[in-house]
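Example S7 (structure tokens).
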């Protein structure tokens, strides 16, 4: 049986498709799974034992000719099932014009999520992992969890690099940036949290971020001396996963690295401002914690804005440094120093 799964973006959404691969293999052990995704995500799945083939799609270089050629190549495969986990115009073209006996499409609960914004009433919407799993009939077992499969030699290599820098200190990953400005904490609080973690908790910090977030990280790390490693703009996604795997705890905004952390077994302390966990994108594990404030104006958008609609940004301003640090401290106390014991 040949099965095609489609998800082009974004980072967190793509990472969370991995439980669906597990479910497919559990139900159809001899199936051949192909994953169609943006080429920058290929490195995260190249060692996934549940994925037999990855089709890299260059989203940045897409045009009509490229789309048609890609569709023609895919139609030659004659898939038994095509599962669209994205449900956007591009993926729907592959879903409906691809040759397949069965076609399945994720329920994004878009209307229900928008109702949460318009009514300000919290409604439980299935987590995105459960939405993906629901595209394939059958029982969903507890073992279907997000997982990025890292090789032991890769983990050892990163661990050896870090041991020379951190010594015996525990490691806190630090993701200060986000796709939208209203998801980002106040700079002074980010700086104070980092300083307190180094001074009071004696930890080593690894800063993560994309190239656009380099200036923010530069400001946050001021005054930390040598108790950090700045990887902002310096890693590909697999390297990002490997370094997060070597963290004892990850502090993050509502962002893609949050889901990478869950997928490699690193507990998360995440701050949510304009968005809410009820949208279905909270960390998908029991160890992690989300810190947020209950306000009548939350949530204000599906993905955050660049400017607070009410101009006060209280959803982030009211989150205190000490409550975040205490949660990180609690998770650090529960985490074993030896990273390889995670999995």
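Recovered sequence:
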């Amino acid at each position: 049986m040949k099965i095609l799964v489609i998800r082009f973006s974004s980072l967190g959404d793509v990472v969370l498709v991995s439980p669906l691969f597990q479910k497919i293999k559990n139900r159809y052990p001899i199936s051949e799974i192909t994953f169609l995704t943006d080429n920058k995500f290929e490195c995260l799945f190249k060692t996934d034992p549940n994925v037999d083939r990855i089709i890299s799609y260059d989203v940045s270089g897409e045009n009509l000719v490229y789309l048609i050629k890609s569709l023609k190549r895919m139609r030659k495969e004659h898939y038994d099932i095509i599962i669209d986990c994205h449900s956007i115009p591009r993926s729907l073209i592959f879903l409906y014009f691809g040759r397949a006996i069965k076609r399945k499409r994720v329920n994004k609960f878009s209307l229900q999520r928008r109702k949460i914004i318009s009514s300000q009433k919290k409604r439980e919407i299935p987590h995105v992992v459960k939405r993906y799993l629901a595209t394939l009939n059958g029982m969903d077992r507890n073992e279907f969890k997000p997982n990025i499969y890292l090789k032991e030699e890769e983990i050892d290599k990163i661990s050896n690099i870090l041991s020379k820098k951190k010594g015996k200190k525990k490691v806190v990953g630090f993701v200060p940036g986000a796709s939208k400005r209203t998801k980002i904490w106040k700079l002074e609080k980010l700086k104070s949290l980092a300083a307190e973690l180094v001074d009071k908790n004696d930890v080593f910090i690894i800063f993560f971020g994309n190239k656009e977030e380099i200036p923010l990280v530069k400001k946050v790390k001021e005054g930390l001396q040598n108790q950090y490693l700045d990887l902002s703009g310096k890693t590909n996604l697999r390297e990002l996963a490997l370094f997060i795997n070597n963290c004892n705890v990850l502090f993050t905004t509502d962002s893609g690295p949050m889901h990478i952390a869950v997928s490699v077994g690193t507990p998360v302390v995440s701050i949510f401002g304009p968005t809410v966990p009820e949208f279905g994108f909270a960390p998908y594990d029991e160890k992690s914690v989300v810190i947020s404030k209950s306000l009548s104006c939350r949530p204000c958008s599906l993905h955050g804005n660049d400017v607070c609609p009410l101009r006060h940004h209280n959803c982030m301003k009211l989150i205190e440094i000490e409550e975040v640090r205490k949660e990180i401290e609690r998770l650090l106390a529960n985490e074993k120093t030896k990273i390889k014991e995670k999995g």
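Notes on this example. The first strand starts at residue 2 and ends at 6.
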